[in-house]
Structures are given as C-alpha cells and as structure tokens.
Amino acid sequence: METILYSHSNRFILRTIDETYVDSVLVFVMNNKHHLSGWEMERDNSYFAREHQLRLIHADIEKMKRGELFRFWMFSMEANEAIIGTISLSNIVRGAFQSCHLGYRIDANHQGKGLMSEAIQLVVKYAFEDLKLHRVEANIMPRNRASFRVVEKNGFRNEGISRKYLKINGKWEDHIHMVLLNEDMEEGREDSI
Fold first, then answer.
1. What is the DSSP letter of 49?
2. Which of 89, 95, 154, 157 is the most exposed place for a label (fewest CB within 10 A)?
3. Which of 114, 88, 151, 103 is nearest to 7 (CA)?
4. Domain boundaries in the chain?
5. How do beta strands 171-181 and 157-168 pair?
6. SS3 call for 44
7. What is the DSSP letter of 128?
8. Domain 4-191, second-level architecture
C-alpha cells in the first residue's frame, strides 16, 4: 500500500512507489547521472536501464514489507509531479538499537530551494513518530557542504568523522557522522511551545 507524506508548503508530495513509476524513476536517474556521480557509488551503464530500475523498485518494496527500509520519492507540485528527489530510511535495526541511516538526493535543477530540508523534516518525523525509532544517522562527505547544511538545519549533531567510510565514485571517502535522536526532536518541540 502506498504511503504518502505531504509537505506543509504544498511544493511537493513524498510517496512510496511501485513498479508503475519506473519510467519516472528512470527519467530522474538519467537526468541526474552526472550531477549525482560525485556523491554516490560508482554506477555502470546497467544501472541506467529500465529493467535494473524495475528490479530496484521491487527490492525496495520487499524491504519495506520487512520493515528494513522506507524510500520516499519526491514529486514536484510545480513540475507536473515529476520526480525531483528521493529520501530513504535504510538499514533499519530494531531491538536495542532502534536506528536507521538517512539517505537523500535531489535533482540538480531543484537544489538550493529548501525542498530537501523540508522533506527531511517530514521523513524524520515519520521515523520517530510512526516507526518509533530512537536514532537517525546521516553520513556526509566533508566536502559536501550543502548536504551538511541540510541535516544541520534539521537538528542533526556532529558525532565525529568516520575514516574511509564509504566507497564513492570509486574512491574510499571520509564521512562526517551526523545524528539526530528522538529526544532531540522532542526537546525542539518543547522549545517551540
């Protein structure tokens, strides 16, 4: 069943998707092939094939059924509901940990408009209120200042650097470990009252 999170500004809709959206996903990944290459793992040409994107969507659906992942796709209200980004809560671990990793990407033409900051606020709220998680972690390369600002605006705190943490575009990269705890969100809500 589709899950939809609405933006307060009505600039976008966040929703989980099924295979009927594969062509929209393919347009997004093709349009952003160069833009995202410096921030993601190395991709070969098969990644940009319709069949591969369809397999990824099916894999996401299975992981969501098991509660291991929630991936929301951002649809623009200003651009005929074109996909302009994606946010994921991945590696969801229950038990004593109750945590996940936050990942996100946005279309090159929609950067710098505050869309991702607003969308992350909604997804983090979903993680804490609906999924009842305790901790959301985002790992960001030090040179990705825009991404760092996005999570910082949402209250994430720097917990240090992880050396050679992820292999990005063929190279092991250091990452700043940014974390937001559920109680940090609760403190923020109390401060705003």
1. S
2. 95
3. 114
4. 4-191
5. antiparallel
6. coil
7. I
8. 3-Layer(aba) Sandwich (3.40)
- Does residue 189 surpass a pLDDT of 60? no
- Which has the closest alpha carbon to 39: 118, 158, 139? 139
pLDDT-derived band of residue 193, with 50, 70 and 90 as boundaries? very low
Residue 166 has which token pair?
């992820």
- State how far the Cα of 97 lies from the Cα of 86, in Å rounded to an integer: 25
Per-residue pLDDT of 112-130, as tens digits, reads 999 999 999 999 999 999 9
Of 178, 90, 104, 88, the closest CA to residue 140 belongs to: 178
Residues 156 and 149: their CA atoms lie apart, in Å, by: 10
What does DSSP assign to residue 48? G
Sign of the CA dihedral with 102 first, then 26, 18, and 65 last: negative
Handedness of CA 89, 92, 95, 96 (dihedral sign): negative
DSSP 126: I
Q: Cα–Cα distance between 172 and 188 in angstroms, integer?
A: 35
Alpha-carbon distance of 46 to 31, in angstroms, equals 15
